[in-house]
Write a structure and sequence with these properties.
globular; 17 helices; two-stranded antiparallel sheet; mainly alpha
Length: about 500
């Protein structure tokens, strides 16, 4: 037995320009994801050039993460209110201006300010991009292809950033890691302005929930900053603990507020839906594992193996190829044939097997013999899981909630990334110190001991990443219980009152 919700008449004819629009949306998404990693490789050069202290260098990364993670829900709501196309174009132009400011930075304050501005405009355009896909692609097969491309970019763009960052830093200048965003943004904004036709009747013009904006922004900023500070100051640091306590209080108050106000910033129906909740949670956990791995592999290849920035970037190519293959060839092809959990669960487990292989890293480990197959498995698994996750996170929501549902996907990724970097890096640092202390007496060479301790720290943290991916897989299998979509229209009327465990699209009932 299947249940079908009829699409509104005006949405039955798909937008003839939707595939052109996808190209510009994908370009914008690539720019945002690239920026999360491209600056990492350029950071040492920028630090030296601008005289940034060791204590403040983390703020080049943190300023972006705080603004992006803290303002995402607000950005998603603005997209619903203003219209996704307008928000998308404004976000792109603002991101370009902030990037120009960063590339021209003459001091620490100017660079940090530009990074915060990049994060703020990124928080506008990222949910707008995903929600445009959600409202423009309503046929199941087409949606699968569109989200396959989007998922591949979302998953593999970070690794592409490492390659591009290496090239620009090594052969040009660290400033080009900022300037490179400008042509991306201008082309995407011009294309969006002339090509994108947002479906009518999909805006949410209700008044802005100001208390919700304040509580969610402060709560998310406190959470991201708490994890970022834990990385440098430790988990028992007074300010770190205070940030976590403040975050918990603010986010609990936010949930209580959203349950009462007439026009909430985040309608609880968006996250209490069993399937979407499962997607947000499993995706956030998977990103925790992935971001930690990017960090460790970058340091392992550059510090332990002596790779140049460019060679390090190219060493990540098998993971990118695996993600693109998993997303566009496996996920997209199977999404209309099998239930999403049968892609997400095995996908996260496959990535976990790749991560498990990396727990065997040694100083003299062969790239071709161990790192290469591990990356291919990681890429295939993540690509296969990301694709249905991205689609399922926005499928069946009321059109007026598409922006905020999209923002929740980005929020789970940004918060997951911040947590992953801090949590796994802290575990690695503790294991490194413990190994160095216990092996100091019998060490033949201080330099050798330092490298052995570093690799031991990496593998200790990677074991945790394996466990996190297993938990993500279990959540996907347990919570995501919708059946495969039919090949008809996926445009539904959204979540009806009292219907929490069902995606309101044509599904096979269980």
């Amino acid at each position: 037995m299947s249940k079908t919700v009829q699409a509104p008449a005006q949405d039955l004819a798909p937008d003839p320009s939707r595939w052109k629009a996808l190209a510009f949306i994908a370009l914008a998404q690539l720019m945002v994801v690239l920026d999360a990693t491209i600056v990492n490789i350029a950071l040492p050069s920028a630090q030296t050039d601008l005289g940034i202290s060791d204590g403040n260098k983390q703020w080049v990364i943190t300023a972006y993460a705080l603004a992006f993670g803290g303002l995402l829900l607000f950005g998603g709501r603005i997209a619903d209110l203003w219209g996704r196309k307008r928000t998308f174009v404004v976000g792109l132009l603002g991101f370009a201006a902030a990037s120009a400011l960063g590339g021209a930075a003459t001091g620490e304050a100017m660079l940090l300010g530009s990074r915060a501005l990049q994060g703020a405009f990124g928080a506008l355009l990222a949910p707008a991009a995903l929600s445009l896909l959600a409202v423009m692609f309503t046929d199941a097969k087409e949606r699968a292809k569109a989200f396959g491309i989007y998922g591949a970019i979302a998953g593999g763009g970070g690794a592409v950033g490492l390659i591009l960052g290496g090239f620009l830093t090594e052969y040009l200048n660290w400033r080009w890691t900022f300037f490179v965003n400008i042509p991306f943004a201008i082309v995407a904004a011009a294309g969006a302005y002339f090509v994108i036709r947002e479906p009518s009747g999909t805006r949410n013009r209700s008044p802005l929930d100001v208390p919700g904006v304040v509580l969610s922004t402060l709560g998310l900023v406190a959470l991201v900053y708490g994890f970022t500070r834990a990385e440098s100051a430790g988990w028992s640091d007074t300010l770190t603990v205070s940030m976590f306590v403040a975050s918990a209080v603010l986010l609990i108050a936010f949930v209580a507020t959203e349950a009462k106000v007439k026009h909430p910033l985040l309608p609880l129906r968006v996250v209490t839906n069993r399937n979407r909740g499962g997607v947000y949670l499993s995706l956030g956990l998977a990103i925790i594992a992935m971001f930690g791995l990017f960090l460790f592999l970058t340091y392992y290849l550059q510090v332990v193996k002596g790779y140049s920035p460019v060679k390090t970037g190219f060493a990540f190519l098998p993971m990118i190829a695996g993600m693109i293959t998993g997303s566009t060839q496996i996920g997209a092809r199977l999404m209309t044939r099998v239930a999403p959990r049968l892609l997400m669960g095995p996908g996260f487990l496959t990535a976990g097997v790749g991560m498990l292989i990396l727990t065997q890293l040694q100083i003299d480990t062969s790239y071709a013999g161990l790192i290469l197959p591990a990356q291919i498995l990681l890429g295939l698994g993540m690509g296969t899981a990301f694709m249905p996750a991205m689609s399922l996170a926005t499928i069946g929501v009321e059109p007026r909630d598409a922006g905020v549902a999209s923002a929740m996907v980005n929020t789970s990724q940004q918060v997951g990334g911040a947590i992953g970097t801090a949590l796994l890096n802290t575990i690695a640092a503790s294991a490194t110190t413990a190994y160095a202390t216990s092996h100091a007496a019998g060490a033949k060479s201080l330099e050798l001991l330092k490298l052995q301790a570093m690799v031991h720290g990496f593998t200790s943290a990677i074991w945790w990443a394996v466990g996190i991916l297993v938990v993500a897989s279990a959540i996907a299998f347990t919570l995501v219980n919708t059946g495969r979509p039919d090949t008809g229209s996926l445009t539904g009327s959204g979540d009806a009152e009292g219907v929490e465990d069902e995606i309101r699209v044509p599904v096979v009932a269980h």
